[in-house]
Design brief:
167 residues, 5 helices, 2 strands, two-stranded antiparallel sheet
């Protein structure tokens, strides 16, 4: 630890409270959601926490698209069907299986208050160079962890999933 207190350090949660928050975070499957609403401001605070994630080269490669509420989530599901259809159009058997899975899981997704699409957008750093892709991926993962920790601190939960659409 530093020999003198870091400015603003007294405003931080205790080490024990931080450890408890980290240990309390759990993924909760959408099938177990109640369908209860999550206020937009809670989602915005979670996204704000995500933006504080560490990133090499200050590229902040994360992007989030929030689908909040039943109509938006239905739109998300339609976009997923469209992307899956485009992605697997050359393989009818895989396409049929993927579309069946989307339909089967759709009832669980409908219990979500919001769906947050997580996107990695690679950008050049101040020197005009791209960071290694694995570093950008790690930065996005850190952002997602921050998002989950903020949700946990506010009494909400989440689940990180690939969503079934590759690429």
């Amino acid at each position: 630890p530093p020999s003198s207190p870091t400015p603003g350090r007294s405003k931080l949660p205790s080490a024990a409270a931080t450890s408890q928050l980290i240990a309390s975070r759990r993924s909760v499957f959408p099938k177990d959601y109640t369908g209860a609403a999550v206020p937009r401001d809670a989602i915005e605070r979670a996204l704000g926490a995500a933006n504080w994630a560490p990133t090499h080269g200050k590229t902040e490669p994360w992007r989030f698209v929030v689908f909040h509420g039943p109509q938006a989530i239905a739109r998300f599901e339609a976009l997923k069907v469209s992307a899956t259809t485009r992605s697997l159009s050359s393989n009818p058997d895989k396409l049929a299986a993927a579309l069946q899975k989307i339909e089967r899981k759709g009832k669980d997704v409908s219990k979500c208050a919001a769906v947050v699409a997580i996107i990695l957008k690679r950008l050049p750093n101040a020197k005009g160079e791209l960071m290694p892709e694995w570093e950008d991926m790690c930065a996005v993962a850190c952002a997602v962890q921050n998002l989950h920790l903020q949700l946990t601190a506010e009494g909400y939960c989440g689940y990180w999933s690939s969503g079934g659409v590759g690429g």
